[in-house]
Amino acid sequence: MLDLGFIRNHPELVKEAVRLKQSDFDVDQFLALDRQVLELQHQVETLRAEQNQLSKRIGQAGKDKELRESLIAEGKQLAARLKELEPQLEALTEQRQQLLYLVPQIPDPSAPVGTSEEDNVPVRYWGEKPQFDFPLLDHYTLMQKLDLVDMERAAKIAGSRSYVLKGDAARLEMALLHFAFDRIAAKGFTPLIVPAMAREFCFIGNGQFPRGRDQVYALEGEDTFLVGTAEVSITGMFKDEILSYEELPLTFVGFCPCFRKEAGTYGKDTRGVFRVHQFNKVEQYVICEASHEESVRWHEQLIRNAEELVQALEIPYRVVNVCTGDMGDGKVGMYDLECWVPSEGRYRETHSCSYFHDWQARRVNIRYRDRDGKVKFVHTLNNTAIASPRILIPLLENHQQPDGSVRIPEALRPYLGGQEVLRARR
Ligand SMILES: Nc1ncnc2c1ncn2[C@@H]1O[C@H](COS(=O)(=O)NC(=O)[C@@H](N)CO)[C@@H](O)[C@H]1O
What we know:
Blueprint: H1 4-9, H2 11-20, H3 27-60, H4 65-100, E1 121-126, H5 139-145, H6 151-158, H7 167-185, E2 190-193, E3 197-199, H8 200-206, E4 224-226, H9 230-237, E5 242-244, E6 250-259, E7 278-288, H10 292-312, E8 317-321, E9 333-341, E10 346-355, H11 359-364, E11 367-369, E12 375-377, E13 379-388, H12 392-398, E14 406-407, E15 421-422
Parallel strand pairs: 2-6, 5-11
Antiparallel strand pairs: 1-8, 3-4, 6-7, 7-13, 8-9, 9-10, 10-13, 11-12, 14-15
Helix pairs in contact: 3-4, 5-12, 8-9
This protein binds 5'-O-(N-(L-seryl)-sulfamoyl)adenosine.
Main location: cytoplasm
Binding site for ATP: 260-262, 276-279, 349-352
Family: Belongs to the class-II aminoacyl-tRNA synthetase family. Type-1 seryl-tRNA synthetase subfamily.
């Protein structure tokens, strides 16, 4: 969310952000509504002031019965007028607030201008793409041959875009999540295991609501919803708090199961476990002081952290600078880390790293007292550490062996009792 004063004073900047972000937000309509609210607010305040004056004059009327009655009659008219205007003011103010949630953040000038992921700009590559001198298998075939997945029984119990991980794949996912947790916690990030059911204000806070509400599972009769990422829960944790600058930066490595409706993706990535309704993710989350330089420093650090993990998994990848039309409303800037998927002959997104300045903090009112005692909104950032089962796809495919087994990268072996290869159980 942007500051209301900023939008009033810089409508052109906001219109440019709307254009760059491919948003349908109408700044002129918003400002017209804002003027209506201000006008009505002025009327109500004037009437209230008159009401105060009037009650003073009634107090001073003393024995003058005629004067008292005329003042009381006047007071009744004022009260009736206020009774009519106050609900209108409340409704218009709420309408403006709901629109305020839809105003996109201004993207950093370093973000490529573009309309879709084709316009994202690769910034660096890492790792040699493996050359296979045997018939290459895709992740789903590999998993079936090694008896690592059961999609049929998953579909029986949970419908489409669900899966059962079996045997070494189940152990591999646990190993990956533990490995990610350990490596990021070793950098001083506080480990968290957070609720995957959260209240509406958390989803407004991170920006999932109102625009992405159709992606979220609601719980019948509850005031909570299933989160699509630990980012939602962590953002909500600090609502309405005023932190001190000595506490900042707060750095967290958070885990929770993630749930997504994936509305609008019918027919996309339906083979295997690339795009599923429930998955597990270890998340990096930073709350820092309201400084662009500090946000940029953390943005670079968070993507490097993810690169370190993917390099340890010996998976070739690239980092792309996400374009304005693909990054979404709240981002100032965003990197995606895309892992090489041999069977598709292309890089696929496995990590997403964003910084927001105070766009999220404003929505959920997270502030801090700076060195001069001034209270400001904090800046927030997040990045994926590991999301599984999607990461299994490049992991299994890049490390497949001619005999159909899969080599386990050194970094994961301590989490798998030293096991070096995934083989079929049989
Ligand atoms: N439907 C899905 N199925 C499997 N994995 C998914 C799905 N949606 C997202 N992911 C994984 O989760 C990662 C992060 O998702 S994200 O929406 O891009 N970004 C976030 O959630 C941020 N909080 C950073 O983690 C993705 O890069 C992908 O690896």
